């Protein structure tokens, strides 16, 4: 069992000792994320759709985003730009996780750590896409169950509440693969599926522990209603998660070595001397 209060104490101590201050790094990262998401919002046509709906409401017309979707669809080039900006956002977010991990380890973290994740671009993006696919499937399951209950005669509110148990797979996915992003930027030897598998095995039997850790931040999330508070909450929460990863993964590997009954993670794929350097390394994905 990992001491939740000790994790938070370690995160606060590391933040106080680190220079430059994590608040300034967080400010720069938040600014970059806001710019990329703003550009994505504008290029995708969502801004035009929202403006059209607002204008229609001012004129007393009843409309919705779906009603104006046809007039605000973007071209293929704009869709590519939007997708690229979204990928950049996910990699920068993972890079901030790498910064937080080095902060916890007192490994002289710097703002440049945020961009080190681009050196692991393919692994970070693929981990996010695979997990995103599973999350989407879990959300669709909830929507399907809610739709069945709605068609059975339940009201919208009652159908939504009655379908809540079908969200269990979503919670399991979010908690079980919560270490995958850190693995993707920290362990260069593991491929995409190995990062996901190792996260799942390391979190087995510890999901309630991790859920309690996440729920303990609710008060801090509420504080973010005052925007400047996010400059402290963002690095604090990320550093605490990094501290959890830094304790849980080595602990799991140690348990696997001592106890044959503990499932062992897949071995890393090393490029051994004598291999043909001209071959494609497909093992990055397994």
Helix percent band? 55-70%
Q: What is the string of SSEs from the N terminus onward?
A: HHHHHHHHHHHHHH
The count of DSSP E runs of length 2 or more, i.e. the number of strands, is 0
Rg over CA atoms, rounded to whole Å, is: 22 Å
The tally of helices reads 14
Uncertain stretches? 68-73, 270-286
Biggest β-sheet strands, sense, barrel: none
Cα end-to-end separation: 30 Å
Q: What would you call the structural class? A: mainly alpha
Shape: globular
What would the average pLDDT be, to the nearest integer?
82
- Give me the oligomer status: single chain
Strand content: under 5%
Which keywords apply here?
286 residues; mainly alpha; 14 helices; globular
Question: Can you walk through the features of this model?
Answer:
- The chain is mainly α.
- The longest helix is centred in the middle third of the chain and has 31 residues.
- The two termini are 30 Å apart.
Question: What is the secondary structure topology, with strand pairs?
Answer:
Elements: H1 4-17, H2 22-43, H3 46-58, H4 65-68, H5 76-104, H6 113-116, H7 121-151, H8 156-162, H9 168-176, H10 180-186, H11 192-203, H12 207-215, H13 218-223, H14 230-258
Helix pairs in contact: 1-14, 2-5, 2-14, 5-7, 5-10, 5-14, 7-8, 7-9, 7-10, 7-11, 10-11, 11-14
């Amino acid at each position: 069992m990992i001491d939740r209060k000790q994790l938070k104490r370690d995160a606060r101590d590391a933040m106080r000792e680190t220079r430059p201050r994590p608040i300034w790094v967080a400010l720069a990262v938040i600014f970059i994320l806001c710019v990329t998401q703003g550009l994505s919002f504008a290029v995708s046509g969502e801004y035009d759709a929202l403006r059209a709906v607002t204008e229609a409401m001012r004129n007393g017309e009843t409309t919705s985003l779906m009603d104006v979707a046809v007039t605000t669809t973007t071209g293929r080039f704009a869709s590519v730009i939007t997708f690229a900006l979204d990928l950049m956002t996910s990699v920068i977010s993972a890079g901030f996780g790498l910064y937080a991990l080095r902060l916890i380890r007192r490994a002289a973290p710097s703002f440049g750590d945020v961009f080190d994740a681009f050196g692991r671009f393919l692994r970070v993006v693929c981990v996010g896409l695979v997990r995103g696919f599973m999350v989407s499937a879990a959300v669709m399951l909830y929507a399907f169950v809610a739709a069945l209950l709605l068609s059975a005669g339940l009201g919208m509110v009652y159908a939504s509440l009655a379908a809540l148990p079908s969200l269990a797979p979503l919670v399991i996915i979010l908690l079980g693969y919560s270490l995958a992003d850190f693995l993707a930027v920290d362990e260069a030897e593991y491929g995409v599926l190995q990062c996901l598998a190792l996260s799942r095995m390391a979190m087995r039997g510890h999901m309630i522990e991790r859920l309690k850790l996440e729920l303990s931040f609710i008060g801090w999330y509420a504080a973010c209603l005052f925007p400047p508070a996010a400059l402290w909450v963002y690095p604090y929460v990320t550093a605490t998660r990094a501290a959890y990863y830094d304790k849980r993964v080595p602990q799991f590997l140690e348990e696997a070595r001592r106890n044959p009954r503990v499932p062992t993670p897949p071995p890393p794929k090393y490029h051994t001397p004598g291999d043909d350097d001209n071959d494609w390394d497909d093992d990055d994905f397994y």
